[in-house]
Every structure is written in structure tokens, then in C-alpha cells.
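Could you show me just one protein sequence together with its fold in C-alpha cell form as a worked example?
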Amino acid sequence: MERPREYQQAIFETARKHNTLVVIPTGLGKTLIALLLASYRIEKFPDSKILFLAPTRPLVEQHYDYFNKHMSKKYKSHIFTGKINAKKREEIWEKAQIIFSTPQCIENDLKNKRIDLKEVSLLIEDETHRCLKNYSYVYVAKNYLKQAKNSRLLGLTASPGKDASIIKKICKNLGIDAVEVRTRESEDVKPYLQKLEKKIVKVELTKEMQEIRSLLQEIYQKKIEEIKNRKLLFGRATKTNLIALQRKLQGMIGSGNRHFNVLRGVSVCAQAIKIHHLLGLLETQGIETSQNYVLDLFEQEKQGKSKAVKQIVNSKQFVNAYFLLTKLYNKNIEHPKFEKLKEIMQQELKNNKEFRTIIFSQYRNSVNKISQMLTAQKIKSKIFIGQAKRKTAGLSQIEQQAILREFKQGKINALVSTSIGEEGLDIPEVDLVVFYEPIPSAIRKIQRAGRTARLKPGKLIILMTKGTRDESYHWAAHYKEKKMYEALETLKQDFKNKIKQKEQKNINEF
């Protein structure tokens, strides 16, 4: 077993005594803490089981491999999946001491009474920020705390969310009574990390792109004004608020309310959401991605799928925007960010032929285009995306794992990834992380940035378009992250105070 670092040992000491939520950046060894605790619990309760849950099969396999490599071979470990038939799973559950599974599989077997959690002395739930609402983690944790003879629970995440209320809900769902938090700036973490150079690279939309944006904003503002005039929207016209309003109005129609104001409201709201999305593509992604979305709207209109789409594509401003967009597309002009990224990659290649980078982008179209650009520059690159969606191709889990192996072996210099590269997966450390666009989520920002500057110095570059949602998204994530750590520190202290009060009460009673 690896020798634990000072902060890992300190976190283990807390987790040994309490159900603990561990919040620690990607790459700082959460799994070793889980391994230390698993070894301790199974030695303390030799006839018990350890259950390690992770949200995806590749992550489950990653944890299984790590435990097999570092834990005593005398303990039988198994991967538990829905692909194994029910009878066989019952047999495995009886024999195995350490089980690695997705939470959905365990939830199903608990509901069908194929297994119980009575003998499980430790439940580990990785990527615990998912432990909300109806996610399987919640069901499994609640049943575990009821059934287990000797319960201990460990929650692991790089970031649980920005709001104190969300973090408290996660803690309640897991029966947490202690919180351990570390950041790159924590005194016991600093000695183990390398320098991280952060840089925001700003670009400006071209004059032609600004013209297209003005036309689209004109349509958007008209739609928002109409929704407000109809007394349907009272708050800010954010994407979140518009989607919530759309759901509310659709619910009213579903309940039999066919009033014209509601029917018209649904249509206008749908139009506003689509134009908002197109504006986002134009501002943050580029011409080709925007063009593809516009062509998709025209196709929907042609097929008569939506009255809302028909109203959009028939508007004068939209037709003019499409004309200008097509002009730029035919000239092969792209977003200024794309050209800036090309410059950055050329410089990196010049400085180090063997450099490794991961470039994150929200959209598959951008991912494909970036990868093609890298290949043209003789940079060995592959896209790293999720499985197939409605109209788009994807990568199977086997293909994803093969690409990660190539990346580890140095056969690939660059991974161009959607959000799938953010969470959990064992992606090797890179010299450079690039955000093609800022994201408003603190969770995802922390996960992305954690891919570099662990064992060697690293760089983080965020591409940002001035005067667009790129800027607001960047600062939104920044303040959410700050708010999250403040909430965690408060919660950590609250739990410590409760533990002290309990210990004092026991002393007084004694």
C-alpha cells in the first residue's frame, strides 16, 4: 500500500471515527483515503463486507483495479453489474468481501430483496455531489444506515455544490457527521503540489459576428418583452428561469388549462429559449456550430414539427442573420477563439514536442473541429466524448478506455473532451488544460482544473470572448466556488462543535 500523505492520514483519522464527507480536488488521492478506511474496517470486522459505489462503469473498474493493486489479496473483490444475471449476483454477494458497483445496480437488488446491507461495515460513495433527489445513492445510503450492524459511510467529491442548503442535504442523505475539506491552498496539501499558472486569454467578436448577434438579440428581446407583458415572467430572463417557466406552462396545459395566454406563452417561451441557445453558440463556439443549429431549425420548420420554430425562421431578423452567417461560413471564417487556440498550441508544440494537453469544450461540434485543427498541426489528437445521442455519434465505454490507454502511453498528445473528461476518470496528468469556454458550474470548473499541476508544474488557460456570456459564466463559477468553500468551512465547524458537545455530555454522564 502507498504511504499516505499528511493530509490523507489526517482525513483517514476523522473518517475512522465518523461518517465523513471528503471534499478534495481531483488528483489528490481520494481513493487512497478510501483504501485506508476499507483496510481498517475489514480488519476490525473480519466477516464484514465493503461496498464501493461509483456513478459509471469505467469509474467502478478504475477503483476495482486500484484496490486489487494495493490491498491484500486475501480479500475477495468483485465488480457487480446489471450485465451479470440476478442469480449469479446473489452468489457473488454472498462470497465477496469487497464489492464495486454502480448505485443503480445495488438499488435494484435491494428493492428486489436479492441482497441486504446488514454485513457491510463500510459504504463508500464516490462523486457524492450526485447524492440528491431520486439518485440511487440516496436510496442505498438510507437503507444502509438502517440495515448495517456496524455502519460507516464515506462520501468523496471534488466539489459538492455552491449552496449551503445543497451541501446540508447531501450530508443529511448520507448521515454525515464530519466534513473534511482541502484545497490547493491548504497548508498540508501545498507541499505535494506543483505550481499552477492560470491565464485568461480574451478575444473580441468580429464586426460581422457582432452584427449577427444584434439581429438575434432584437428577436430575443421582443420575445422576452411579450412574455413579461403577458404577466408570465416576473424575474430575470435567464435560461434557467425560461426553462422553469416553460415547464410550468406545459404543466398548466397538461392539466387542462387551454387559455390563449398560456398557449401563446409556451410558444414564445420556446422561441426565446432557442434564440438564447443560438446566441450562446455564436458568442462562445463559432460560425460552424451556429450554422449547424440554424440549419437544424430550418429542417424542423420544413417538417412542420413546431409552430415556435416556424415563427423564428420566418422573421426578417432571423433571415438576415442566417444570410450573414452563411457568408462567413462559406469564407471558412471561425470564432476568434479558434484562431487564438491554434496560436497557443503552436507555441506549446514549439516549447515541448512531447507536451500533453486536454482541451474542454461544451459542444461535440467544437470538439471535432478543434481535434481536426490539432491534427493538421501534426499534434496527435483524439476526441473524448460520451456515448451516442439522438442524432450524433459517440464513443462506447470500451472505445473511451482505449483512448485513455493511448493517452497514458504517450501515443496521443491531446485529448479534446466534452464534460465526460471532467469527472472521476483516471486521466493522466497533463501539462496544459484549456477551457474553450468558461462554464458557470463551480463543480465542473474544479474538476477540469484538477487535471494539471499535481506532480509537475502545469498551466490552465481559459479562452474568453469579451462582452459575452463567457465573462458572466467565468465570474459565476468563481463566486460559486468561493461560496462553496465558505459553506463547507461553516458546516465543518458545526459538526466539530456537535462532536465536542456530545463528548462533553458523555463525560458529565460518566
In short: The domain at 336-471 is CATH 3.40.50.300 (Rossmann fold).
